[in-house]
Amino acid sequence: xxxxxxxxxxxxxxxxxxxxxxxxxxxxxxxxxxxxxxxxxxxxxxxxxxxxxxxxxxxxxxxxxxxxxxxxxxxxxxxxxxxxxxxxxxxxxxxxxxxxxxxxxxxxxxxxxxxxxxxxxxxxxxxxxxxxxxxxxxxxxxxxxxxxxxxxxxxxxxxxxxxxxxxxxxxxxxxxxxxxxxxxxxxxxxxxxxxxxxxxxxxxxxxxxxxxxxxxxxxxxxxxxxxxxxxxxxxxxxxxxxxxxxxxxxxxxxxxxxxxxxxxxxxxxxxxxxxxxxxxxxxxxxxxxxxxxxxxxxxxxxxxxxxxxxxxxxxxxxxxxxxxxxxxxxxxxxxxxxxxxxxxxxxxxxxxxxxxxxxxxxxxxxxxxxx
Length: 371
Fold this sequence. Notes:
Elements: E1 2-4, H1 11-31, H2 33-37, H3 41-55, E2 65-67, E3 76-78, E4 82-89, E5 95-100, E6 112-119, E7 125-130, E8 135-140, E9 144-149, H4 158-162, H5 166-170, H6 176-184, E10 211-212, H7 218-231, H8 244-254, E11 256-257, H9 263-266, E12 270-274, E13 280-284, H10 285-292, H11 294-302, H12 306-313, H13 322-335, H14 342-354, H15 359-370
Helix pairs in contact: 1-3, 7-11, 13-14, 13-15
């Protein structure tokens, strides 16, 4: 890391320093191209440090720049105001993955940052630009990071797309929220943001590994089925696309892939379950799973935000009646595959399972209260 002890240089002088440093590095690269092609990212910081020191002679920056080891942002810090981030690629283009949008290691005193980018491919070349002017998109590794494009045109930055300036975004408590909102607005059918946590169960992290459903223990398989019934009641219905979102959810939230996803729910036969009157009725295996894992369903509902449930259910979710709304959706979907008595039967079975009654009456009261 490179740090300058100069406290308050003028912006115009800093810009001149960066331009002069680019010229210095590009001239040196023509004479020593093979040298730069062998430089690693960390070693390139040393080169930039040397170039800055040479170019700072006779300016207010002279003898103020030093190299410091550690992991801070930006790499080159000019104390109390300016900074320079050093990036490079061994390929013959001007793009790369940048720093995290969270900027948790940023020096809070730094207000203006430049990007110095070394293209170490076929022809070695250096360019420097204001940091926010070369951030085109968001890419995701273990956390959303900026994508760098040193040839980006004016008006095409990620900040132009989101509608927030770089400074506005970086100062937010949760900068991921407006970013995920933007990318969600661009989703096509069958697409999902695996890194956007507001669609998942609260406090759940994205797994680092991917597993096949068939390798899981039977109890874990059953629990995942029940969670999917909870998040996506349409699985009980007959829509042609009813498995699309659940399949994406299983992969992005649990890291589990099932090439035979439909088989998770189409097998199992029927089970006898009691109505409120005690009469036994034959219901699909899904209702048997719901009965055995009712605590898991209630836990999932309680730990999932209204926003996430609304996105998956397609209705406005009332925090005080999540369970009732979910039961109504399950019964409605089940009825779509059965005769006219399907809804009534399903509601009675679910009322018995969860020991709650008059779900339909509560629905009528809620609807009346919304008018």
